[in-house]
Amino acid sequence: MAEQNTLSDLNSRREKHVSQDREIYRLSVALLALLLITGCAHYPANQRLKEYNADTGYRAKNMRVPGKSDDMLLFLTFSGGGTRAAAFSYGVLEALANTEIVSEGKHRRLLDEVDTISSVSGGSFTAGYYGLFGDRIFQDYESRFLKRNVQGELLAKVFNPVNVVRLLSPYFDRSDLAAEYYDRYIFNGGTIGDIAARKGPMIIINATDMTYGVRVGFTQDTFDIICSDLTNFRVARAVAASSAVPIILSPLTVRNYAGSCNYTMPEPIERVLKENDIAERRFYLVNNIKPYLDSEKKPYLHLIDGGVADNLGLRAIVDRIIFRGDFWRTIRNTHHENVHKIVFFVVNAETEPDSRWDQMESPPALAAMLESYSTIAIERYNVETIALLKENLKEWTEQIRSQRCIGETVSTAPGSCGDIQFYIIEVKFDALKNETERLYFKRLSTSFALAPEDVDSLRAAANRILTESEEFQRLLRDLKR
């Protein structure tokens, strides 16, 4: 009997040890899987450029829109501001698509005359989608993005157990996860190369270098400096960088391969550096390039929301003109020597500071202070950007006339060498006459979730503001001459 009890105890202990071994095995497998998942989570690196070639790749001079009139150069800029900004800019696209003009004897939509769209943050969703899919935007953009609870779906992704583990990786963060979501559900895996192949307008999606505060545009001209090829770069990652609001979303990382593709700075840039005129704005712009030329000191770029450097998306265009030295060189580079009308549509989904705190004696909460700081800084910088554009118009006009009218008598008659007109058409909530309506739009959330009725109201407001703009009506009148 004692012997049987001993055998029973031994069997029981053996089964217990086997059970423990199985549990340890399961935990080991789970831990190994966890380590593998975490270790494999890594952002997709941007590709290295094999050899620098100033004539190839995604550049403005290679993005000439087929059938477009030579008489007009038309820029659109889309501001940041979450889904609110995306819906507002979409409303402008709808209005331009519904505006018919006669160009060189042909009936065309004003939208077909757009040469460049420059965007930041929320506006980059609209710009990127139109760049990839063209008029398809009017069929499914609302359901795929504008009227979708993108913010809720992103939060669900973050708290998914698999993604929680992936986010433990030091090489994969919230903006990388957001980029995956955008890529799958909004942009269908589209690349910058796909935008180039569609032969539509040039789309410049803008982000900000977290370290230097320098605007970084997703064009080959910019990526030449870091010897990176943009062809296969996903539009979703560019948009994720452009809309990576600090704290809420993480910076998005881009590798710097500078020094590996035989890149040489264009002669005008070299000349500015040699002249070393620190009082000139061109020197400031060119000097911003220097840190990126040394990949050993700066092997990575960590990109955040484009609104930090320029919330209008307008600096990408203005800086490019100043960078090249004069407007004539800019339009020659893009084959617009015969242009007579240069149009800037500045779409600004600006916010309104929350003045309710002025009625309270207690200090505002930290979140309110941070929001107020960013709102004030962005709004004042926007004013300076518009002022910079307007200040340059007279000089740019003279630059075009002096070069285009060489050997001719300068005439401003329609179609002559000296005929050049600039139009700055601002589409912003301040144009709304009704104060209640104006404040309502300015105080709408800048998140990635809006009520469908608010989306529709923003679209209608954009259409109305544009239609009632005196500068827009001046353009339409001049186009009929």
Account of the protein in words:
The protein is α/β, with parallel strands linked by helices. The chain has 18 helices and twelve strands. The chain has helices spanning 2-40, 82-97, 122-133, 137-146, 150-158, 161-166, 174-185, 192-198, 220-224, 235-242, 267-275, 281-287, 315-324, 327-333, 366-404, 435-442, 452-468, 470-479, and strands at residues 47-48, 72-78, 100-103, 106-109, 114-120, 202-209, 215-217, 228-229, 252-255, 300-305, 341-348, 421-428. Strands 2, 5, 6, 7, 9, 10, 11 and 12 form an eight-stranded mixed beta sheet that branches. A hairpin with a 2-residue loop joins β3 (100-103) and β4 (106-109). α7 packs across α10. The radius of gyration is 27 Å and the shape is globular. Mean pLDDT is 88; it is low at 27-38.
The Cα radius of gyration reads 27 Å
Distance between termini?
Answer: 116 Å
The total of helices stands at 18
* Secondary structure category: alpha/beta
**Shape designation:** globular
Helix percentage: 40-55%
Nearest-integer average pLDDT: 88
Low-confidence stretches: 27-38
The major sheet is characterized as: 8 strands, mixed
Quaternary assembly: single chain
Number of strands: 12
Give, in order, the helices and strands. HEEHEEEHHHHHHEEHEHEHHEHHEHEHHH
Proportion in β-strands: 5-15%
List the helices and strands and how they pair.
Blueprint lengths: L1 H39 L6 E2 L23 E7 L3 H16 L2 E4 L2 E4 L4 E7 L1 H12 L3 H10 L3 H9 L2 H6 L7 H12 L6 H7 L3 E8 L5 E3 L2 H5 L3 E2 L5 H8 L9 E4 L11 H9 L5 H7 L12 E6 L9 H10 L2 H7 L7 E8 L17 H39 L16 E8 L6 H8 L9 H17 L1 H10 L2
Helix pairs in contact: 2-3, 2-17, 3-8, 3-10, 7-10, 12-13
